[in-house]
Amino acid sequence: MPSAQPPDELTLILAAQRGDVDAFNGLVTRYQNAAYTVAYRLLGEPFAASDAAQDGFINAFRKIKEYRGGSFKAWVLRIVTNIAYDQLRYQKRRPATGIDDLPGGETDDGPQIASADITPEDAAEQRDVQRALQDCMQALPNDQRVTLVMFDIEGYSYQEIADTSAVQLGTVKSRLSRARLGMRRCLDGKRELFPQFFRQDDEQTIEND
Amino acid sequence: MPLTDRDYDLISLYIDDALTPTERRAVESRLATDAAFRAEHEAIRQTIQLIKAMPEMIAPRDLRLTPEMAADILAEPRPAPAVRRATPTRSLRMWTTFASAAASLVLVLAGALTLLRPPVPETNIMSVAMVSDVPDERSRTAASTPTEKLDEGFTLGAVSQPAATMMPYELAGTPPPTGGMGSGVDAPGHDEQDVFAATDDAPAGVYMAIPEGYDTAPSDVSPSPQILPPPTSDDALAELTAPNAIATPDVTMDAEDGSLLFETSAVDPAGNTAASEERADMQQAAPVVPPSTARMSSTAVADRSLETAQDVDSDQLELTSESNRDMFAADELITAQSLGAPSPLLGFALVVGGLVLGGVTIFIWNRRP
């Protein structure tokens, strides 16, 4: 007996717009990891990131009738991004994060990787690499980090970022360039974690010599 | 040489394919020749690859909504619709604002028209004698003691008046003199005290001497180009009113200001000469009536300041006549301003009032809910 096909996204959306919570939770199940990842990249803290993702879905259910089509994932991620961005600005005004809550602190176990089927050694290596990336990302100024995550991770365009951040298009380009350069210099100090990344650099150095 | 921020901007935009063709060619040319630039481009490109390759994470907890959370959300009051119908109050406010804006526009236009209105075409109904360069004391003397004043001769400035200024004359209740002549200072019924009263109390402006018995009705106006002294019992006056007192004006143009200069000389049979000059500003569109076409009704006295207020060139009509010393005197002084001449003050007041009302209207409109 063939298993029942899961309802498609549009069906779930239409049902959720009629107040069907189960249908909406079907959408949450599909995109909660993506929502949490974006929030974590922006906030760098698992609890704050999960709270931001949760608030994003609550807001999404509250505004589900305003959804007018397009990518539902992008629509939800935009809501989560706005919540995380607001939280960053709030933290900037009232910094209350303890030092142990910062990336790399004792209470931070690092991001959980969704992919499976890897050896424990590879998983440990991947964990170190991702932590290094996250640490470098977290070291960026908030505006640069948000721009970097929205463009290179979420796939927003320059103009969409400018509209969301309420800044000029040139400011977005500049922030993105500075963020990439900051990441490049930060990773340069962790080259032992990225042998493949710095291999070509070393080869070029040898060639130049 | 280390790369600049602009170099990294170009590298980032080049990777995103966001450069113009010209910039892109410049970057590619530099990549082919500049090893440091090429190395940084490669490092940035791989950094972006690492960032984009960051795996999706697993949410640490289930983010699905509980029935309680959903119930709370569904129980929230819905926001009011964005579009509201215009209530009667709002409609009234809108119409009030519209009416206020229209009123302010009308005020401004009326003020502008008042300020910019050209002079009303002058008529030959009457002329107003005005002393332009005579000091106040002299004017006061001429009005109060014309006999002494006229010993030295006297000066009359001929100023044509708009037709619209006739009414006050008629209201003065002056009976028409015979032959349209003005009455002299010794005319019956003349009260010299009135001259003082008018001189002291009247506002600034051109003062005109209106004789008793002078009829300002248009039908009684004679276009005769005579300088007509007021009728008196003096024989010399009768001679001046004779037809041979007709004066022929000479019109010349002033080389300095382009104004027309009317010169009129009239010689009465007694050998007395009446001369007048009038400058007509060519910038004024209204026709100018030479003083020869105006009738001198009586002596008029005006302050220097009053002349300035009327913005009239000094039009002087000098009548030198010992025999006429008793002929000209002011019977009554009436300001030209009171006769309906355009008032710049009124125009300014209208414009300012309109602008203020318009500003208030805009302020209220911007504060509407």
Quick overview:
The complex is a heterodimer of chains A (209) and B (369). With 209 residues, chain A is mostly helical. Chain A has nine helices and no strands.
Commentary on this structure:
- The complex is a heterodimer of chains A (209) and B (369).
- By secondary structure, chain A is an all-alpha fold.
- Helix content of chain A is 69%, strand content 0%.
- In chain A, helix 1 crosses helix 2, helix 3 packs across helix 4 (72-93) and helix 7 crosses helix 8.
- Chain A is globular, with a radius of gyration of 20 Å.
- With 369 residues, chain B is an alpha+beta fold.
- Chain B contains twelve helices and nine strands.
- Chain B has helices spanning 5-15, 21-33, 35-52, 67-75, 88-116, 136-144, 146-151, 166-171, 192-201, 235-240, 304-310, 344-366, and strands spanning 122-129, 154-156, 158-162, 207-209, 248-253, 260-267, 273-280, 317-320, 333-335.
- Chain B has a five-stranded antiparallel sheet with strand order 2-8-7-6-5.
- The longest helix of chain B has 29 residues, at 88-116.
- Chain B is flat, with a radius of gyration of 42 Å.
- Residues 122-233, 236-249, 258-271 and 273-339 of chain B have low confidence and may be disordered.
- At the A-B interface, helix 2, helix 3, helix 5, helix 6 and helix 8 of A face helix 1, helix 3 and helix 4 of B.
